[in-house]
Amino acid sequence: MSYKKNEDVDGGSTSMDKMTIFQDCISGFNASPIQPRKCRILLTRLIYLLSTGDTFAKAESTQLFFSITKLFQHKDIALRQMVYLVIKELASVAEDVIMVTSSIMKDTAVGSDVVYRPNAIRTLCRIIDGTTIQAIERLIKTAIVDKHPIVSSAALISSYHLLPVSRDVVRRWANETQETVLAQKTFPPTAYNGAYSAAPTYMTQYHALGLLYQLRSHDRMALIKMIQQLSNAGSALKSPAAVVLLIRFVARIIDEDNDMRRPLYGLLEGWLRHKSDMVNFEAAKTVLEMKDVTDAEATPAVDILQHFLNSPRFVSRFSAIRILNRFAMIRPQNVNVCNIDIEALISDPNRSIATYAITTLLKTGNEASVDRLMKQITGFMNDISDEFKIIVVDAIRSLCLKFPSKQSLMLSFLSSVLRDEGGYEFKRAVVEAMFDLIKFVPESKEDALSYLCEFIEDCEFTKLAVRILHLLGAEGPRTKQPTKYVRYIYNRVVLENAIIRAAAVTALSKFALIQDPAVQDSIKVLLTRCLDDPDDEVRDRAAMALRLVEPAAKDIAVQYLDPAGVPSLPVLEQQLVMYITSGPQAKPFDISVIPLITKDQQDADNFRAKTMATLPIGGGFSDGAANGTSPARATPELREEQSQKFAAQLAAVPELQAFGPVVHSSKPVSLTESETEYVISGVKHLYKEHLVLQFDVTNTLPDTVLEDVSVISTPSLDELYVEQFIITIPKLAPESNGTMYVAFTRPADDDELDENVISCTFSNVLRFTSKEIDPTTGTPDDEGYDDEYQVEDLELGVADFIMPTYIGSFQHMWDQLSFEKSETYALGGISGLQAACETVTTALSMQALEGSDVPLSSSTHVLKIFGRTLTGKKVVAQVRMAYSAKTGVTLKITARGENENVVDLVVGGIA
Fold it and tell me: How far apart are CA 91 and CA 797, in angstroms?
């Protein structure tokens, strides 16, 4: 089918107007005799129209549908294929589509043209419904085992679409699907492929295996049996794509059931030696993505990927370095063995491979190799796209946070690439990297601010200029020479557009908080000039700033221009959604219930995120490491967000408002098994002078109502933790959940905190009145009976009294603190130094600093951590670790703090 771009077809128009096409189709399809070429062109225009989002009304779709069915009278192969394509698109809109079943069934019969049958089967399964699927059951079962692979694949793929329609019927096709998995099909000789009549195809195995998994996914034992049968050395599974699919099934089972990890890992290790490259890569990727993968498990996968780094094929080298790059984000010490081969890829003619190689080396290299790597990076930055430049910049940012002593070299590199040509996303990545250096590496602040000031002199992106001006306003007044930044800011008021001028006015106003009267007077002069600006936003900001810099408004100015904290964005979003969705409100939204996040908490959260390199193109690890990080490393962020939501929930309880803001919340702890009648979890909330235990209870019984539900919580130290009150659940309906609270007073001063205070155990008993529901009336009985239900104990620990906090310089804080104590421990059952780091930081609830949460060696490591007590007392610790396969992890923790009791708690907290 070929025609000129503007050629009319039998006097018809080439216009893509919907109504014109509709009318042309109705007249063309009803013409006699049928003109195949003209009808194909009309169908092409119609399918294009539908694919671009245009739709027809139900009546129009029905009329089109039945006009198209008249084309079944013609035997033209190309016309018939187009008919099936359009019918599938209209089937979901038109009425009475089932009427065309008989015409389609003729093309699905055995003996029909092989070109017709696959299309007819696919179309038939799109117009069928749950009430008529049994009529085509025999047809589909026959097609699944058809000797022609195209027909078989069409039937298998159609079965996927029929699963939501009638899963029970499709399950009866399991035997035929199993037969297809084990079969080897070839293309029969035809007029179209006679030259390839002996060529086998295994694609049907891939389609059949996917369907078989869907049919057996509910039966874990049957699924494991299928995997073991198909993974045998003599298995008939010859399709590499099918083996890749089988590996993904194995990965899913391992992720869901850790008990199957050991037997199924042997299969993965065997697939690492498969003759197909794609199978090798999928097996290696799956092994490295497993949760808490050990060094012994990861080594074979890294070895096979190291072999592919020297492959002559571009795609093999790219795949290998890309997988290693991802793994290096969380386990750089395991990728170190490949560094020599990775360095050879820096000069690879494929710039994508070279980019991944250099970023991998940045993650796995040590401090001594940074200088050499930076020289190599500079050589090819101009030869790669912005997309890969961003990857390099993110890797450099992460490396600088790990090795702060190299900040000068990396800052110089970032400033040079900032002057290069590039789009917004690339420039934004460089600017954000400089922001991180300013925040997390204090030694770089002066130089970085100077580079950013030079950049905004010739910045073409308004958003970036606004971000930089905001940073200058926040950090400039705190520098040694704050006035040198005022000139750069005021230049923006004179030279830039209204948006940038408004941001510059706000930044200028922050310099008025400096106590120097000369500076304040100069700022007032500059702000007064801004009152004549042609833009009202700039004038309003200048006027407000002038009012705030007056001595009488000093307290308001500090609160507005330099706030101590910001609202928790996750909680704010949640509360706004609830406020909007609950209908018209009589009262305005109260932002005071939103908990504030201090700058220390913000810095700690940002630091945890920034020290993890940004994911490469195409996303991150699946399942267990969905964000490019191991699940353990994602826990702090989730815990912080969860604590903020708890704070909003507690603020809404009237009885708890007198306690003030919650200081710290623990993560939920399960106090019962998930299969019990009453599922209970507990959370510990610490206030300045109180402790609140939150109990979330779920009544899983479908025919029982619980009334007057409460928890009697008895502390082991009843002289220190005195019960205040209990907030009960008046009524808990069947299969519903509720929350109750038990409040205690507690010691508030860190001087009183010792092992006896934090080692308090709360024994808990659930008490309630149980009432059966009458099945006939659906109402509970008038009289019930009192009952008790024993649940697990809740224990206070070191992690409940310390909050992870970020600081810029570990050594500076170490030198400041005086009280010191050391202790040595042997940790059993720990698989390596990475697991030991996660265990220590979780047990002590302290923030890892300077990238020390990722060991660069598999034998020795030093972990640096910092935290504050609930009353703000500082404590810093240095944990020296050594690992051997025989003895496990041996560590020595040395802690320094402002308070001797707090130091004792940290040192003894690991035990």
Answer: 63
Read off the tokens for 250.
């194995």
pLDDT bin (cut points 50, 70, 90) of residue 47 is: confident
Residue 883 has pLDDT above 90, yes or no: no
CA distance 106 to 552: 90
Confidence of residue 339 (pLDDT cuts 50, 70, 90): confident
Considering the entire predicted model, what is its pTM? 0.60
Same fold, 653-796 and 802-908: no
CB atoms near residue 533 (< 10 Å): 18
Segments of 560-652 assigned E as strands:
565-567, 596-598
Average confidence (pLDDT) over 166-186: 82
Q: Which of 64-73, 448-457, 631-640 has the highest mean pLDDT?
A: 448-457
- Asked whether the beta carbons of 549 and 522 are under 8 A apart, the reply is no
Region of 729 please: left (phi>0), alpha (psi -120 to 50) or beta. beta
Mean pLDDT of all residues in 719-747: 87
**pLDDT tens for residues 178-227?**
888 887 665 555 444 444 444 456 788 888 888 888 888 777 888 888 88
Q: Which CATH superfamily is domain 802-908 in?
A: TATA-Binding Protein (3.30.310.10)
The CATH number corresponding to 653-796 among 3.30.1330.60, 2.60.40.1480, 1.20.1260.10, 3.40.47.10 equals 2.60.40.1480
Helix (H, G, I), strand (E, B) or coil at 620: coil
DSSP of 507-519: HHHHHTTSS-HHH
The radius of gyration computed from the CA coordinates of the chain, to the nearest angstrom, equals: 34
Helices (H), 196-239: 203-216, 220-230
Domain ranges of the chain: 566-618, 653-796, 802-908
Mean pLDDT computed over 306-311: 92
- Structural contact between residues 377 and 371, judged by C-beta atoms closer than 8 angstroms: no
Q: Provide φ and ψ at 562, rounded to 5°.
A: -140, 65
Cβ atoms 832, 293 nearer than 8 A: no
DSSP single-letter state for residue 189: P
